[in-house]
Structure formats: structure tokens, C-alpha cells
User: Fold these one by one.
Assistant:
Number 1:
Amino acid sequence: MKAVTVSGQVCMAGRPLFAPLTLQLRPGSWTSLLGPSGVGKSTLLRLIADLPIGGTFQGRVENRVPLALMAQDPALLPWLTVRQNAALGARLRGERPDQARLASILEETGLAGHGARYPPELSGGQCQRVALARVLMEDRPLILLDEPFSALDARMRLMMQDLAAGLLKGRTVLMVTHDPAEAARLSDHIFVLTETGLTGLPPPQSQPPRLPGDAATLACQAALLAQLITEGMMP
Ligand SMILES: Nc1ncnc2c1ncn2[C@@H]1O[C@H](COP(=O)(O)OP(=O)(O)OP(=O)(O)O)[C@@H](O)[C@H]1O
């Protein structure tokens, strides 16, 4: 698999969001993208997913591969059970879901006992697990995550990070996040996007997921915070 690469520039209402850039997603690695609100992180994700953006794109996306997208809003259908929501992709394509695979993924995501429940009966963390189960059911080589854990409490966020890191290992992942600690724990590659373009920062050398209190992880988190403050994201 070649690196999925997006290069170019986006204009919203005739004004460039950021300077021309190139973002390469190395196969089988986890890339995190941080940056100030409104700079265009989700727009980059949408370009890679070939979804409409509000502006114009001058550039190209190379080496596209099938992908699955998971966002902060788990986008579950409240009238479908956990099991049906997890298998929604197949259902929408008019296919019969692979029941053995579904059972195994519900087990892996800690939902085995919840298959017959409905989303309004679930906690926020459980809903995100269903969204992750749905992504795994789709079995795509590229996974796009748009602030997937930002609505969760700190403990649940750590648990979901560990779960996602384990279950998405070996896939190419691009995650948009506002959380330097999350990027430091999970990433093989980290970029900060600003109006002037992309800046790469080195992640810790150890394998993700890293312990949140690990010295190298904390140092990476601090470097990211410093970079974001320099770029005017934080007071
Ligand atoms: N459909 C649209 N129509 C017009 N403008 C849009 C549209 N979608 C996004 N924008 C604008 O494009 C800019 C980039 O939006 P985008 O959602 O990519 O930013 P972001 O970096 O992901 O922000 P955040 O961190 O707040 O989610 C913003 O100024 C936003 O208002």
C-alpha cells in the first residue's frame, strides 16, 4: 500500500485556510493532527474521505484506499439495536452481515452483553464503542477519526484510546484531536496544522499506546502544548 497523500490548498469564501501543504499517511501507522479551531483539520479529513467541503480545493489526493470514518458524534440510529448499529454498513448495502465476525467484534469492544440494547440506553462511552465496532465491521485499511473521544470523561477516554490502539493496530489511521496527551499516547506521527501549514513533531520512541504518565509521553505532550501556544491556540 502506498502512502495516501493529500497536497494542495483549500479556500473558503475565496480566502485560503492554510498555506499549500502535503500530508502523507504512512501505511500501517497512526498520524495525529492538531491545530487551532477552524484552521481546516476536519476539512482535510473530508478531502481524504472524498466528502464535500464548503470551499474549493486546489490540489490532489493520491493513492486513495477504502476507508471508514468515526467522529465525536457516534451517529447511532436510536431505533436500531447495538448489534444492528454495528452492522449498519452491510445493512445499508443490502448485504447480510457476517454474524460470526459481528459477535467477535462485539466481544472485542466489550459490547457482547449489550447487543440487544438500544442507543438511548447506553452511556457515552458505550455509544463510542458501538461506533468503533461499526468501523471494525467495515474492515477498511484507512480509518479517519475526527475527535472521536473528546466527549468522554478522562477515564473513559483513556480506556477508549487503549481499545482503539489495540484494535486498529496495523491500519493506517488519521486522527484529528485537540488533546496533546491523546496525540502523545497514540501516535507514530504528529502534525500541527496552522495557517502557515503543517509542522511535524516527534512522538516518543516507545510503541503506542503509551502510559499517560510515562516521562517521554509527558515530554511530547509538553512540546505539543508549547507548539500550540506558540501558534496562538491557547492563552
Ligand atoms: N460547509 C462549509 N461551508 C462554509 N464554510 C465551512 C464549511 N465547513 C467548514 N467551513 C469553514 O472552514 C473552516 C475550517 O473548518 P474545519 O471544520 O475544517 O476546521 P477545524 O480545524 O476542524 O475546526 P475545529 O477544531 O473547531 O473542529 C472554518 O472556518 C469553517 O467555518
Number 2:
Amino acid sequence: MNQPDLTLESLAARVLNLTTVLTTALQERNSPQPSFSQDAPDFLSPAPEVQGPRLQLIETLTKMLHLATGPTEYLLHQCLLPNADGLIVDFLNRFDIWHLVPLNGSASYADIATAIQLPEVTETPGSDRIIHSAASAYVARDAARSAFIGHCMEDVRPAAAVGVDALQKFYLGLKEHSEEQEHCPTYLASDRGKVRGTSYWEFAETYEEPGKPKGYRAERFALAMKALSQTQLTAQVLDKFDWESLGDATVVDVGGSTGHISLLLAKAHPRLKMIVQDFPEVETSFNEAIASSEYASRISFHAYNFFEPQTLTANAYLFKSIFHDWSDKYVVQILRNLLPVLKSGVHIIIFDNIIPPDHDEHGKPVVPLPTRRLLGAVDLQMFVNHNSKERKASDWTEVVKRADSRFELMGFYTVVGSPMGIVDVVFNT
Ligand SMILES: C[S@@+](CC[C@H](N)C(=O)[O-])C[C@H]1O[C@@H](n2cnc3c(N)ncnc32)[C@H](O)[C@@H]1O
């Protein structure tokens, strides 16, 4: 589509304007301005007055970069840079370079080469000493962030590399999208020369490698989920549901991993009792994360496979980032497994990505480009790992109703700056 208003000059003017709006909004909240220094804020304020212009600024800068790059170089960059970027991030993370450079200090290339037992690269650009930037210091400060990188680089990247192979092998000639889990690229991916041939969950639990404990990938994944929930305005989205309206209530956090979402809820709502359900293997990590917390008496663990009928009665069942891992036919099974314990009025709270409509009725984009790109990437990651997808509001309605007509959709709640939202469903007999 020809867009004559998108010139370098008009975009630059918009960048200037948005920068002023953003920095003023931060000043008004006494929030620090973003910087490259290692003590820069990890996140900017969640206020919509900050997040709105921030996302528009990223969108405008992306378009400017695109224009300045030009079509020939753009395609060249698209082919070369993602491979190089992935390789570099994987290297930094696997060799834990984050901790070989001291915070508030520096390290030489020679120091690092000695520590990781690799030959030193002789041609180093600029200074031979390395210091942390805001981004690397952010990883060095919290193991969960490095776990998220490890999951993306070591679990997902080998599968993404055979994504088109999976399309050719499993999809050629099909008229409709397959709902089968075993048609995802993960089944074709290889690690250390061995083809996985199994679901992501089984692979993560059973994968073995010299020098690493069995199941380390599953433990790392749980930690990665914690890192993810530190972004995406998780607490703000969680707040969109009126938890106090449940009164003295029991909430089952189905597939709740090590309990980090239950912890947030227990902290914010003293009348809630949380029960985290997940695979039995997760219990040890759950205990490590929750047992020493002052809220431990209100958060317990219950080993449960959500492909079996639910046995716990509760006032609400929370599914946080569960259903986007499963295609519709499995979501229907998981929801139907609640039926034996559901009474009228019980809430099923789905906390997941909600893909917004791309355009309004006038064809104007309604969602900032960075959010659309992120959702597109997560959607592809779900295909790669599980042959599942991210869902629009209409997809959520369809799959919930397909499970049982007594499930009533009460509302969709989102916040500016997060791709996630809450789908509130009530069981009505
Ligand atoms: C994407 S993670 C989400 C974890 C957590 N709710 C969060 O938002 O951080 C999916 C979780 O579902 C769990 N899970 C996968 N299959 C399961 C099953 N059949 N029964 C119970 N839990 C399962 C995994 O162990 C994992 O903790």
C-alpha cells in the first residue's frame, strides 16, 4: 500500500513529538529516564500515559529504520542478522558471559577467553575491555532472565530452524490446519545430533546431557516463565479481575508451575487460598520458591495432569498461559475435565494473550506495531513448540463454547502495553 505520508521527515517529526510526550510523562511520575547505563531502570512505568507513547515511538522508529535501510539492504539484513543475533545471544548465555564481566567493573577479552576455555579472538573492535550495558546487567542480576534466553535459544531455536520442514512434511495437501500436537516442528528438531521425536513437555522432562541433571530444561522453563511474568504488566493485567468479589475463596492455579502467579495473588488478596496444580516433578521447585515465603500457609501444591478429570472443588480456576500451548481440540478436553467439580457461578479465569483486531472499520491499525510483532512472534513460537496458536477474542469465545454451552463469556480485560488479557468465563447451569 502506498503511504505518501510516511517520509523520513514526517516520521522524524513524529519521533520528536513522541519523545517529548514520553519523557514528560516519566518526569511527571518522578520515574527515571531510559539509559544504556547498567543501573538504568529494568522497566518503564506501567502507566498507560507512558506505555502508549513508548509503543508508538518504537513503531515510528521501526518505520524510519526500514525507510533508511531501503529494500535491498533490508532483505539482506533479514537473512543475515537474525542468524548472527541468535548465535551471539546463545553464546553469551550458554557460556554465562553475563557473570564473567563484573557489575560496575570490566573484563578483558583475554580474561573471558581463559575462563571459558575458548581461543581468544585476536581482532577486537575498539577497547579490549568489556563492561555491562543496561541489557546485559539486567540478565546478570536475575537467573530467571537467563533462563528465558536459554529456553528461546536452546529449546525453541533448533525447532524453529525446521519449521518449514514440518510444514512440508505434515501439512502439504491438507485443506485445514492440523490440530495434532505431533505435527509441530519440535518433533523434528535435533539436539546434539539426536532427533527429539516427542512433545515439548516430554522432551523438557526427559532430555539428558553430560554434566546436566535430567529434566534441567523443564526446570529452566519454569524459571523462564517467571522472567516472562516480570514483563508484560502481569500484575496490572491480573488486577483487571475483581478477585475481592470472590470473598473467602479457594482458587486453583491449573498448570501454575512454581507458583509465582499464585504468590502475586496471595500477596494482594488476603482472603484467597491458592492451590497450584502441575506435574509432580514441579513440586520440588515449587517448594523451593514458596516454602520460605510468608504466604506459604495459603499456597499449596497438588500434583495433577489436566488431561484427567479435575478432583478439587474451588470458587475459581485460573489458567495462566496454559491454553496458548494447546490447539482447540486439547483446550476443549482440558475445559471439559473441569465439569465433574463445577457448580453454577464458578469462574474460569483464562489469563493469556488476546490477539486484538489488526484494523478498525476504517482500515486503520489499532494496535501498535511492537505489540503486533511480539504477538506474531509468540504465535509462531506456539506453532513451533506445540502446533498451537494465539487467539483473538472470537477464537476464545468459539473454543470455550465448543467445550460446553454452559460456559458463559463475562468479559475480556486488557491493559495498554501488554499483549495479555483476562477472559472471564462463568459456569452457569
Ligand atoms: C506455559 S507454562 C505456564 C506456567 C504458569 N501458569 C505461568 O504462567 O507462568 C505451562 C505449564 O503447564 C504445565 N503443564 C503442561 N502440561 C500439563 C499437564 N498435562 N498437566 C498439568 N500441567 C501441565 C507445565 O508444566 C507448565 O508449568
